[in-house]
């Protein structure tokens, strides 16, 4: 699949087939996330991998009862690591750049999963403290996104997108 096919094929899927994601594919997704650009190449983010049923169920509860997470074979939790960006970029690095780093890495992972024939959904609605407890994430690390991953058990209808001329504003 070329890049534009991957982008066009990617969509949010919340129903997964009942088999695991192969380790080789998960490793490829994590390697793609590691290639994501980051502010000053500081890579101010961490990725936590959940594959055990009890962890996935607890993440689903932490994500405001989004139970489809419990039925996914895997979930990646992308977290910002503000201290990694603070030394070079101060407050802006801690508040913004670390968060951007985590979300860019999540985007790379999502697109890599699509290229490997997997389905994903980005979850942003969750209780930070509950996610921290489930994955034993230190207090100085901030959960930014959960990415559920698996083989699709559904093919949702394409969601409409805004028109380019409504979205893009070019300076004259």
Q: Would you give the CATH topology?
A: NADH Oxidase
Work out the number of β strands.
4
What does the overall shape look like?
globular
Which CATH C-level class is it?
A: Alpha Beta
How far is it from the N-terminal to the C-terminal residue, by CA?
36 Å
Written as H for each helix and E for each strand, in order along the chain, the element string is HHEHHEHEHEH
Helix content: 40-55%
Structural class: alpha+beta
- Estimate the strand proportion: 15-25%
Mean pLDDT: 97
CATH A-level architecture = 3-Layer(aba) Sandwich
Sum up the structure in keywords.
7 helices, alpha+beta, 4-stranded antiparallel β-sheet, 172 residues, 4 strands, NADH Oxidase
Task: Give structural notes.
Helix content is 46%, strand content 16%. It contains seven helices and four strands. It is of the alpha+beta class. The protein has a four-stranded antiparallel β-sheet with strand order 1-2-4-3, sandwiched between helices. The chain starts with a helix and ends in a 5-residue tail after the last helix. The protein is globular and about 45 Å long.
Secondary structure: elements and pairs:
Layout: H1 3-9, H2 23-34, E1 45-50, H3 53-62, H4 68-71, E2 74-80, H5 82-115, E3 119-123, H6 128-135, E4 142-150, H7 164-167
Antiparallel strand pairs: 1-2, 2-4, 3-4
Helix pairs in contact: 1-5, 2-5, 3-6
